[in-house]
Amino acid sequence: MMFLGLTIHMRMALMLGSGLFWTLTYVLIILKGLRDKTYGMPLAALGANLSWEFLFGFVRQGQPVQTMVNIVWFVADLAILYTVLKFGPREFPKLRPLHFSLLVAGTLGLAFGGVLLVSDEFDAGKATYAAFGQNLMMSALFIAMLISRAGLRGQSVWIAAAKLAGTALASAAIWTFDAGRDTPLLVYLYLATLLLDLAYLVAVVLVKRNSAPNPVGQG
């Protein structure tokens, strides 16, 4: 009984740690986006996040603590959506503002359908497969955004590090303590996301280092 209680507390600590780091990621993205007058989360990733958080924060509520965290994330992602709507048209100068708004609305609608169907078909209506599937997509899209912008507008080393820590802790919690959840697909999602997050962190560090001005008289 004592071992079971310790296991529950360790899993809760890992999930709370993940929640804190992901909340920090969202806050840093919002602040960096406002400072750089852009948005810091790829549009498709934001759509998937908002859909997942709405679905599992308001519609299919689970554990009370996680449900509350999901609602907090949803509010944070609404703030990121604000930066998308305010600054996004600058990133797509060939699109009229109305067309950009339609693009955002269409992305949100498609994302919700995808999250809902993945949850229903692969996870009996639960959150795990959809969460880690979209996390892998998000990790790849952050790298793509870094490449497309050729700079750190809306991005930072701290954002990359916080995202890596949040995902790693959540993966450790489910892999270690959730019996029957370590399926080959989930293991692949854990490891692939970890590798992409590490690659993103290294890439952001290199971009930051290469963009830093050289001291006078050096190079």
Structural description of this entry:
With 219 residues, the chain is an all-alpha fold. 81% of the residues lie in helices and 0% in strands. It has helices at residues 2-36, 43-59, 64-91, 97-123, 128-149, 157-177, 184-211.
The biggest sheet, with number of strands, parallel, antiparallel or mixed sense and barrel status, is: none
If helices are DSSP runs of H or I spanning 4 or more residues, what is the number of helices?
A: 7
Low-confidence stretches: 1-6
Order of helices and strands: HHHHHHH
The tally of structural domains comes to: 1
Helix share bin = over 70%
The shape, in one word, is globular
Rg computed from alpha carbons, rounded to a whole number of angstroms = 18 Å
* Average of pLDDT: 88
Please give the alpha-carbon distance between the first and last residues: 64 Å
Number of strands: 0
Give the structural class: mainly alpha
Percent in strands: under 5%
